[in-house]
Amino acid sequence: MQHGHLRQILVGSGAISRAQIVWPRSFVSATIAATIAFACIQLDQVGAALPLVIGAGFVGLANAGIGPTQAIKGMAWCLLWITLATLAGGLAATLDMAQVLIAVVMALIAGFAGALGKRGALIGVLSLVLYVVFSGAPDTERTAFTSAVLLGLGGLVQLIIGGAFALLSDRRHPRTEPNIEESRSVIDRLQEHGRRDSQFARHAARLAVAVGVATVIAHSTGWPHEYWIPMTVVWMSRPDKNGTSTRVVERTLGTLLGIGVSLLLIDLIGTGPIRLPLYIFIGTLFAIAFVNANYPIAVGGITLIVITLFTIDGEPLSETVPYRLVCTLVAAVITIAASFLWPYRPKTPNSVT
Q: Do residues 235 and 125 make contact, with C-beta atoms less than 8 angstroms apart?
């Protein structure tokens, strides 16, 4: 990565696109996630908090920055695919190294999902993230179904309440213009990008290699939460080299921000049945509100959510943070290295076909 490009990324990471901030819907989504966390603590069902809150949060991400009809469709499709990905990951958790082959196939599919448009790319990333998370956690067949049901339930609550609010929300809320690419039929878009020289075909191949390597390394380390390495690779990977390097820097900065905020809140302010759901609310609010406005802030919110969920589940912060940092750095190296494989070069009018 060139020094000038790095400086440009760092400057850009501090820029906030105010028009892209979505406070009203984010507030509703964050309230839902926090209420779910509060209910799990009060009912002494802390083990259910992670899939329920993640389901609500991920479906909430599909509700950000688009019109109400598009939002409801996007949330519904997101709910379907992340639930299936969670189930697939849980079932694959006992397959040992066979997970690598499955992860490669899943990465190929998720990477090519970008051909369907921005919403398809988002759902592909979220689904692949949940697959590697639940395949990296040692679940039995029963807990695989339980995790999928709980995650789907959290997402369904978000879909019903968040979708209703989207329909009734203030008309002054900024919305993106209709995406011409996404208005075309699915078959047309897949056919157009199905060629070997397609940007998304190449991205899918690179992502598959990166996720496969990350999964092998994760299995060989024996670290807690080994899935953090391939999961972070998925978050960082983009269809182009510059986009990938930008996302690597932004993801790293966001992770550091989230860890800093988590240390401040959990270590200094403390935990409790009211405070922990409040931290979930803060993390979800900023993750969804800033996902299109400032990615590092959104990542900081996601990191706060994850660390808080582990705290709810009884895992000390001192055991979570060091591995999270190391896994982020390992994933960054893998992602940058993979971005040099089969690079996409846009055709120019003078290029020879």
A: yes
